[in-house]
Amino acid sequence: MTVPPKTEMLGIYPANYHEARDLFRQAAQDLGAHLENHVVLSGAEYGGDLTIDVAVVGVEDPTWSLVVSSGLHGVEGFFGSALQTAYLRQVQRQDVIDSKGQLVLIHAINPFGFFALRRVNEDNVDLNRNFLVTGETYSGSSQLYKDLNGFLNPASPPHRFDGYLVKALWNIGRFGYSKLKQIVAEGQYDYPKGIFFGGHKTAQSTAIIETHILRWARGRHVVHLDFHTGLGKRGKYKLLVPGKRSQTDLTYYSTFMGPEIEHLGSDRGIAYKTKGDFGQYVLSISKTTDYHFFFAEFGNVFRHSCSQGASYREPSILFQFAAQCPRARASRTT
Fold first, then answer.
1. Distance between CA atoms of residues 249 and 254, nearest Å
2. Rounded to whole angstroms, what are the CA distances from 34 to 56, 142, 241, 332?
3. Where in the chain is the domain with CATH 3.40.630.10?
4. Integer Cα distance of 126 and 124 in angstroms
5. Residue 148: exposed, middle, or buried by beta-carbon count in 10 A (0-12, 13-18, 19+)?
6. What CATH topology corresponds to 6-123+203-299?
7. How far apart are CA 257 and CA 242, in angstroms?
8. What DSSP assignment string belongs to 163-199?
């Protein structure tokens, strides 16, 4: 695929969720793709329906599928949506058909978060902690998360001098950065207003994906890219590999995709192990062993290690205390 000129790329970066969806739908229709719309929420306060939209291009019985999904973490959907729209405008439909393949683009898995500029869904659920595999339950959290709950999820509105960074540095010194990152971010199911909350049940967005993903991702060979932004250095990317993968697989990925490959089971790098993530779920139910799933993580800001947690913590706090805090009220209207 040819990279569009910068001026053209600027024309596909949406101002909001509804504009993103309109651009995506129009590009899919122009290409002659089969288009599905799955309603997650509906109401005047949302400007109408909030939907997961899916564009499918290719043959009825494909030998391969390329699946590209975006917006699992709501507000991160701006980037993924722009790439999906650009791809729909660039790809040649007949080329896909001639190669007996299929393209599947899943737009805005978390449309509420995209609409409201939040990482989480309408129930404060991090959807990438909500896809449980067989045998897992929506319960539990680590003892360390419980011990740090007051620090991570304070019971009062934030203020200018709450000393978060000082406390963060102290906790990093106590527990070590890698351990603290892992324990906090792996997912928790006891604190509904807390960060990295995985939910108490299957979310509506999750249910839609679980119902249809095997119908979309067909063929003997499947590659699935799920786009995210945030972690890592600005302008750089990592392909994060979930699930149990052999060293042979990881070496194969690195050989063909470069050193940007990182396994979620590693104790090094930007990633961490999680419970209920989208990739592990898809791999656990896939009917083909040749299903290759990658979280494509693009860094968009520079973050010091001790301030990274603030990027998750602060929006959640501001949202929870919007009625009590002027700064929080302002954050909910922008």
1. 9
2. 5, 44, 29, 36
3. 6-123+203-299
4. 7
5. middle
6. Aminopeptidase (3.40.630)
7. 16
8. -HHHHHHHHHHHH-HHHHHHHHHS-BSS-TTSTTB--
Q: What is the DSSP letter of 307?
A: T
Residues 226, 230, 233, 239, Cα dihedral to 10°: -20
Q: CA-to-CA distance for 109 and 48, rounded, in angstroms?
A: 17
What is the pLDDT tens value at each position of the chain, 334 positions in all? 454 555 455 567 899 999 999 999 999 999 999 999 999 999 999 999 999 999 999 999 999 999 999 999 999 999 999 999 999 999 999 999 999 999 999 999 999 999 999 999 999 999 999 999 999 999 999 998 998 888 888 877 767 777 777 877 887 888 877 777 778 888 899 999 999 999 999 999 999 999 999 999 999 999 999 999 987 778 788 888 887 777 777 777 888 777 677 777 655 555 567 889 999 999 999 987 789 999 988 887 644 444 445 455 555 555 555 554 444 443 443 3
Residue 37, beta-bridge partner list: 53
Strand locations in the chain (E): 34-43, 48-58, 64-69, 101-107, 221-230, 237-241, 261-263, 291-299
CB of 307 closer than 8 Å to CB of 165: yes
How is 73-102 classified by DSSP, letter by letter? TGGGHHHHHHHHHHHHHH--HHHHHHTTEE
Compute the distance between CA of residue 316 and CA of residue 124 in angstroms, rounded to an integer.
8
Residue 262 and residue 295: Cα distance in Å, rounded? Answer: 10
Whether residue 120 contacts residue 72, with contact meaning beta carbons closer than 8 Å, is answered with: no
Distance CA 246, CA 267 (A): 16
What is the distance between the terminal CA atoms of the chain, rounded to a whole angstrom?
35
